[in-house]
Amino acid sequence: MHAFDVLGDPVRRRMLELLAEGEQPAGRLAAVVHEEFGISQPGASQHLRVLRENGFARVRAEGNRRLYAVDTAALREVDAWLAGFRRFWDQRLDALATELARGARTRPTTAGEGPAASTEEESCRTWSRRSSPPTGTSSGGGRGTPN
């Protein structure tokens, strides 16, 4: 089975997400997928088998429990395949990082700092005073004058 066929199933992806948190007993994995997907315990076992047989998970026995963990072998293969496509998003992320750094250099870090913020705030207050009617009057005149 191809790696993307394995990862194409939402139940198996969820199981991998859980395994990414650390080693998990099969019973807990089965309980979560039962709760979230309505999958029976035998169905969950089948999904775990697919993950194991395709190199995404490994299992070890501890007494009568089976503990599953992520096996990175298949994930490395997926990562290697994706490497040919990374340039599509790496360039955009690099450009975003540049813009964020540029913005951090030109914009004050605290509100009210620097001349631009004071000028902007003063402009807003001036405009607000000109366009607001005095307290206790109606705004029917449109220019802040009482009717």
UniProtKB/TrEMBL annotation:
<keyword id="KW-0238">DNA-binding</keyword>
<dbReference type="InterPro" id="IPR011991">
    <property type="entry name" value="ArsR-like_HTH"/>
</dbReference>
<dbReference type="InterPro" id="IPR036388">
    <property type="entry name" value="WH-like_DNA-bd_sf"/>
</dbReference>
<feature type="compositionally biased region" description="Gly residues">
    <location>
        <begin position="138"/>
        <end position="147"/>
    </location>
</feature>
<dbReference type="InterPro" id="IPR001845">
    <property type="entry name" value="HTH_ArsR_DNA-bd_dom"/>
</dbReference>
<dbReference type="InterPro" id="IPR051081">
    <property type="entry name" value="HTH_MetalResp_TranReg"/>
</dbReference>
<dbReference type="Pfam" id="PF12840">
    <property type="entry name" value="HTH_20"/>
</dbReference>
<protein>
    <submittedName>
        <fullName>Winged helix-turn-helix transcriptional regulator</fullName>
    </submittedName>
</protein>
<dbReference type="GO" id="GO:0003700">
    <property type="term" value="F:DNA-binding transcription factor activity"/>
</dbReference>
<feature type="region of interest" description="Disordered">
    <location>
        <begin position="101"/>
        <end position="147"/>
    </location>
</feature>
<feature type="domain" description="HTH arsR-type">
    <location>
        <begin position="1"/>
        <end position="90"/>
    </location>
</feature>
<dbReference type="InterPro" id="IPR036390">
    <property type="entry name" value="WH_DNA-bd_sf"/>
</dbReference>
<keyword id="KW-0805">Transcription regulation</keyword>
<dbReference type="GO" id="GO:0003677">
    <property type="term" value="F:DNA binding"/>
</dbReference>
<keyword id="KW-0804">Transcription</keyword>
